[in-house]
Amino acid sequence: MEDISKIDAQSMAGMLETQGARDLVLLDVRKNSSWTDFMIIATITSYTQAQGLERNILEEATKQQRKLHKSSSKAQDEKWHLFDCGDMVINLMTQESRDFYELEALWFDSEDVN
Q1: Cα 17 to the chain's mean position, in Å?
Q2: Model confidence pLDDT, tens digit, residues 10-37
Q3: For residue 74, pLDDT beyond 80
Q4: Per-residue b or e along 54-76, where b marks 16 or more CB atoms closer than 10 Å to that residue's CB
Q5: Pairwise CA distance, residues 41 & 114, whole Å
Q6: Is the Cα torsion angle 16, 29, 62, 78 positive or negative in sign?
Q7: Distance CA 32, CA 29 (A)
Q8: Domain map of the chain by residue range?
Q9: Quick check: 34 and 87 in contact, CB under 8 A?
């Protein structure tokens, strides 16, 4: 049986990497989470880059026939942009935020499937 959620998450991660997101991690959190299946964490360098990636995320979600349930605020000083696609959560973070929150450490026993 084909794992559509995993294929979609890998496709989203690939698009983000192609568009310049750095240090991308794609975690399978199904055994550790009841509210999502995959967690994407990537580093961004600027608000402008985050805006461009948001447009690309919306396009990719539309291609995958997904609804974006929630996204973070649009403040220009925002250092963490969160996108909830249901079974996939995307975190775009500045290096400073990524170092501070250490999301990978929270999901330490999840498999990196990227």
Answers
A1: 11
A2: 999 999 999 999 999 999 999 888 889 9
A3: no
A4: bebbeebbeebebeeeeebeeee
A5: 11
A6: negative
A7: 5
A8: 4-112
A9: no
109: three-class secondary structure by DSSP: coil
Which secondary structure element, helix H or strand E, spans residue 91, and what is its range? strand 88-93
- Within 8 A by CB and 6+ apart from 19, the residues are 52, 53, 56
- CATH fold of the domain at 4-112: Beta Polymerase; domain 2 (3.30.460)
What letter does residue 55 receive in the DSSP assignment? H
What is the model's pLDDT at position 78?
A: 81
Closest by CA to 39, choosing from 30, 48, 52, 51, is: 30
Give me the count of residues in the chain.
114
Alpha helices of the chain — where are they, by DSSP H? 4-18, 47-63, 95-101, 103-106
Q: CA–CA separation, 62 vs 71, rounded Å?
A: 15
C-alpha 68/C-alpha 77 separation (Å) is 22
pTM: 0.88
